[in-house]
Design brief:
- By secondary structure, this protein is of the alpha+beta class.
- It has a single domain, classed as GTP cyclohydrolase I, C-terminal domain/NADPH-dependent 7-cyano-7-deazaguanine reductase, N-terminal domain (GTP Cyclohydrolase I, domain 2).
- The protein is about 30% helix and about 30% strand.
- A 4-stranded antiparallel β-sheet has the order 1-2-3-4, with helices on one face.
- The longest helix is centred in the middle third of the chain and has 12 residues, at about 55-65.
Length: about 120
């Protein structure tokens, strides 16, 4: 299986269990790895035969900048569900990091979902 990766996406949102996290925007770093057969796109050199990275980025931004969630696990599920609406994508691995919540350490979650 081939993979398409998007790394180092940074968006701001109001997510977390604590009141401060839900009232003040904080930074989230997101990485995705998509299981996708790229041979058709490699042969055709046509965007229609692959995953549009810009559309994936926009989907992720909509989720992170959208309604507040308590858990980054819920954000990751929302992102995976929306990405996997494209049935050509076989799997989606989503990592979300809360880069500014602690002074020492970065909590994160990684999920893998499939079609």
């Amino acid at each position: 299986m081939d993979s398409i990766h998007i790394t180092d996406l940074l968006f701001h949102g109001k997510h977390g269990v604590g009141g401060d996290e839900r009232n003040v925007e904080q930074e989230f770093s997101i990485e995705v790895s998509l299981g996708f057969e790229t041979s058709r796109a490699g042969a055709s050199d046509r965007l229609a035969d692959t995953v549009d990275y810009g559309a994936i980025r926009d989907t992720i931004r909509e989720v992170i900048e959208g309604p507040s969630r308590y858990l980054i696990e819920a954000l990751a599920e929302d992102i995976a569900k929306r990405i996997l609406e494209d049935k050509r994508i076989r799997s989606a691995e989503i990592t979300i990091k809360k880069t500014a919540v602690w002074k020492n350490g970065v909590p994160s979650v990684t999920i893998t979902r499939g079609n």
